Amino acid sequence: MIRDQYISSVVKSVVVSEKSSGLKDNGSTIVLRVLRDATKKDIKEAVEKLFGFKVESVNTINYAGKFNRSRNSARQDWKKAYVTLEKGQNLEQFDGAAE
Length: 99
Fold this sequence. Notes:
Layout: H1 2-9, E1 11-14, H2 18-26, E2 29-34, H3 40-51, E3 55-63, E4 67-68, E5 73-74, E6 78-85
Antiparallel strand pairs: 1-2, 2-6, 3-6, 4-5
Protein backbone atom coordinates (compact mmCIF):
# COMPACT_ATOMS: atom_id res chain seq x y z
CA MET A 1 0.00 0.00 0.00
CA ILE A 2 2.74 2.46 0.95
CA ARG A 3 4.77 1.42 -2.10
CA ASP A 4 1.75 2.13 -4.37
CA GLN A 5 1.34 5.61 -2.86
CA TYR A 6 5.03 6.33 -3.40
CA ILE A 7 4.92 5.13 -7.02
CA SER A 8 1.89 7.31 -7.76
CA SER A 9 3.71 10.39 -6.38
CA VAL A 10 7.01 9.85 -8.25
CA VAL A 11 5.97 11.84 -11.35
CA LYS A 12 5.46 15.51 -10.46
CA SER A 13 4.76 17.01 -13.88
CA VAL A 14 5.47 16.91 -17.60
CA VAL A 15 8.27 19.26 -18.70
CA VAL A 16 7.12 21.60 -21.46
CA SER A 17 9.88 23.11 -23.59
CA GLU A 18 10.96 23.22 -27.21
CA LYS A 19 13.35 20.34 -26.69
CA SER A 20 10.80 18.12 -24.94
CA SER A 21 8.18 18.85 -27.59
CA GLY A 22 10.66 17.96 -30.32
CA LEU A 23 11.58 14.69 -28.62
CA LYS A 24 7.92 13.79 -28.23
CA ASP A 25 7.07 14.62 -31.85
CA ASN A 26 10.11 12.99 -33.48
CA GLY A 27 10.30 9.86 -31.40
CA SER A 28 8.79 8.20 -28.43
CA THR A 29 10.48 10.10 -25.58
CA ILE A 30 8.68 12.02 -22.84
CA VAL A 31 10.32 14.38 -20.37
CA LEU A 32 9.11 14.39 -16.77
CA ARG A 33 9.90 16.23 -13.56
CA VAL A 34 10.21 13.57 -10.85
CA LEU A 35 10.93 13.23 -7.14
CA ARG A 36 14.55 13.87 -6.23
CA ASP A 37 15.03 10.49 -4.51
CA ALA A 38 13.28 8.42 -7.21
CA THR A 39 15.38 5.74 -8.88
CA LYS A 40 15.21 4.78 -12.56
CA LYS A 41 13.35 1.62 -11.59
CA ASP A 42 10.78 3.69 -9.62
CA ILE A 43 10.28 6.06 -12.57
CA LYS A 44 9.83 3.17 -15.01
CA GLU A 45 7.29 1.50 -12.74
CA ALA A 46 5.39 4.77 -12.21
CA VAL A 47 5.12 5.56 -15.94
CA GLU A 48 3.97 2.03 -16.74
CA LYS A 49 1.38 2.11 -13.94
CA LEU A 50 0.09 5.69 -14.34
CA PHE A 51 0.10 6.05 -18.13
CA GLY A 52 0.01 2.43 -19.34
CA PHE A 53 3.13 2.70 -21.52
CA LYS A 54 5.86 0.09 -21.94
CA VAL A 55 9.16 1.78 -21.04
CA GLU A 56 12.37 0.91 -22.87
CA SER A 57 14.82 3.10 -20.92
CA VAL A 58 15.05 5.95 -18.41
CA ASN A 59 17.76 8.62 -18.25
CA THR A 60 17.87 11.06 -15.34
CA ILE A 61 19.51 14.42 -14.69
CA ASN A 62 19.89 16.10 -11.29
CA TYR A 63 19.73 19.89 -11.22
CA ALA A 64 21.16 21.94 -8.39
CA GLY A 65 19.07 24.77 -7.02
CA LYS A 66 20.30 28.33 -7.38
CA PHE A 67 20.55 31.10 -4.84
CA ASN A 68 19.39 34.61 -5.72
CA ARG A 69 21.36 37.18 -3.71
CA SER A 70 19.07 40.10 -4.46
CA ARG A 71 15.99 38.41 -2.99
CA ASN A 72 17.73 36.12 -0.48
CA SER A 73 15.84 33.16 -1.84
CA ALA A 74 16.83 29.84 -3.30
CA ARG A 75 15.30 27.51 -5.85
CA GLN A 76 15.21 23.90 -4.78
CA ASP A 77 17.14 21.03 -6.30
CA TRP A 78 15.13 18.95 -8.77
CA LYS A 79 15.38 15.93 -11.05
CA LYS A 80 14.37 15.46 -14.67
CA ALA A 81 13.79 12.11 -16.39
CA TYR A 82 13.89 11.31 -20.10
CA VAL A 83 11.66 8.26 -20.57
CA THR A 84 12.04 6.39 -23.87
CA LEU A 85 9.07 4.22 -24.74
CA GLU A 86 9.11 0.97 -26.69
CA LYS A 87 8.34 1.02 -30.41
CA GLY A 88 4.68 1.34 -31.34
CA GLN A 89 3.57 3.27 -28.24
CA ASN A 90 1.03 6.03 -28.87
CA LEU A 91 1.73 9.44 -27.33
CA GLU A 92 -1.65 11.01 -28.19
CA GLN A 93 -2.64 11.42 -24.53
CA PHE A 94 0.32 13.80 -24.02
CA ASP A 95 -0.68 16.07 -26.94
CA GLY A 96 -3.22 18.11 -24.99
CA ALA A 97 -1.63 17.77 -21.55
CA ALA A 98 1.02 20.40 -22.09
CA GLU A 99 -1.05 22.94 -24.00
